[in-house]
Amino acid sequence: MACLGGAILLSGAVVGLAGSSARAGAARELKITAHKYAFEPDHFEVDRGDHVRFLVTSVDADHGIAIKKLKIKTVVPEGETGVVEFDANESGTFDITCADWCGKGHKQMRATLVVRDGGTR
Residue 81 domain-assigned? Predict the structure, then answer.
């Protein structure tokens, strides 16, 4: 783990608070709202090779996102927006789960990321 311009680098993912310019360049920006006990929206599609930037807003408690297969995990404090950036180098369907215990519905808090082989959006 290394500090990178106000963000934390975890296995190829850049994690920080919104407003941090942790990584320059064009990114596929996706906004996600985390609240008890759901993500909105709950489905995302990108192309393999895209640089992805999730803007994760935690509304009512500490939440976060974890994408286990991509080794991404970050917690976002209540009322804040966190940034998770990574390169979508592996195609497939990936489960997104809440990264911080948020109550009895925590295990049902899920979303899906689909990384397509390429082509059209």
Answer: yes
CB 9 within 8 A of CB 2: yes
Residue 76: partners with Cβ closer than 8 Å, 6 or more residues away: 34, 56, 57, 58, 62, 63, 64, 65, 82
On whether residue 121 sits in a domain, the answer given is no
User: By the 8 A CB rule, do 15 and 82 touch?
Assistant: yes
Q: Which residue has the tokens 């850049």?
A: 14
Helix (H) / strand (E) containing 9: strand 7-10
Q: How many domains does the chain have?
A: 1
Look at residue 71 and tell me if it is in a domain. yes
Measure the CA–CA gap between 72 and 82, rounded to whole angstroms: 13
Look up the pTM and report it. Answer: 0.76
pLDDT tens digit at each of 121 positions of the chain: 333 333 333 334 444 544 444 444 578 999 999 999 999 999 999 999 999 999 999 999 999 999 999 999 999 999 999 999 999 999 999 999 999 998 898 999 999 999 999 754 4
